[in-house]
């Protein structure tokens, strides 16, 4: 008899936002949400919002025919490490999407994505693994997004943009539309600050802020 177990990895802020989305998704599929829990490596309590919290090793000790998880961890480096941990333990990844997410034509998304309420993905969009789109974010036409990319709330990604692996785009940031054959590129591991307006490509690993966005200068 099948007895699957489902989990949101991360019981802090974002995990608590993802949990009701996954719960509703399971209920719509007539899956028993009593088998839905949190995993947290440093839990501060035994349960939150009606769901038990387990450390990873304890999660693995619960009897289950299959195990499914969504990684609600904002830090993309940690998210990648947890993905590998789950793969090594034969845990499958869940794609989570709010019921009001808008997905249009020819949109391809890698496994483990989380699409929060009011997110929109328009047309001819390619997205890699473990993508997070927080509330009110959108991805316009002809964009390519790599693995482990994180959108904070209200990100506006206009057309013909490439976002490389591990990039983080802050709340309310706007990325100007590129041109066919001349996309704006957000480099590997780049960080776009809250409310920034990006009008040109950003090199890998660079943090930018402001309008127009410029590299952050750190005082030593």
TrEMBL record:
Organism, as annotated: Advenella mandrilli
UniProt record similarity statement: Belongs to the transferase hexapeptide repeat family.
Protein name: Acetyltransferase
Database matches in InterPro entries: AcTrfase_PglD-like, Hexapep, PglD_N, Trans_hexapeptide_repeat, Trimer_LpxA-like_sf
Superkingdom of the organism of origin: Bacteria
Classification via SUPFAM superfamilies: Trimeric LpxA-like enzymes
NCBIfam families in alphabetical order: NeuD_NnaD (TIGR03570)
Pfam families, per the entry: Hexapep, PglD_N
């Amino acid at each position: 008899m099948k007895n699957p177990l489902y989990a949101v990895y991360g019981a802090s802020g974002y995990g608590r936002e993802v949990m009701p989305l996954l719960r509703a998704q399971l209920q719509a599929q007539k899956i028993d949400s009593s088998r839905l829990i949190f995993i947290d490596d440093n839990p501060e309590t035994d349960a939150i919002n009606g769901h038990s919290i387990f450390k990873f090793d304890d999660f693995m000790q619960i009897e289950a025919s299959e195990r499914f998880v969504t990684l609600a961890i904002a830090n993309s480096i940690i998210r990648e490490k947890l993905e590998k941990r789950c793969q090594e333990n034969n845990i499958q990844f869940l794609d989570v999407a709010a019921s009001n997410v808008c997905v249009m034509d020819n949109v391809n998304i890698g496994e483990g994505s989380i699409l929060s309420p009011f997110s929109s993905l328009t047309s001819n969009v390619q997205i890699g693994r473990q993508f997070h789109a927080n509330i009110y974010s959108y991805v316009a036409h002809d964009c390519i997004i790599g693995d482990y990319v994180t959108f904070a709330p209200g990100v506006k990604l206009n057309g013909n943009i490439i976002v490389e692996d591990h990039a983080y785009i802050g709340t309310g940031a706007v990325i100007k539309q590129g041109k066919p054959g001349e996309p704006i590129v957000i480099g590997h591991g780049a960080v776009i600050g809250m409310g920034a307006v990006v009008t040109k490509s950003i090199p890998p690993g660079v943090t930018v802020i402001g309008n127009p966005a410029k590299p952050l200068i750190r005082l030593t």
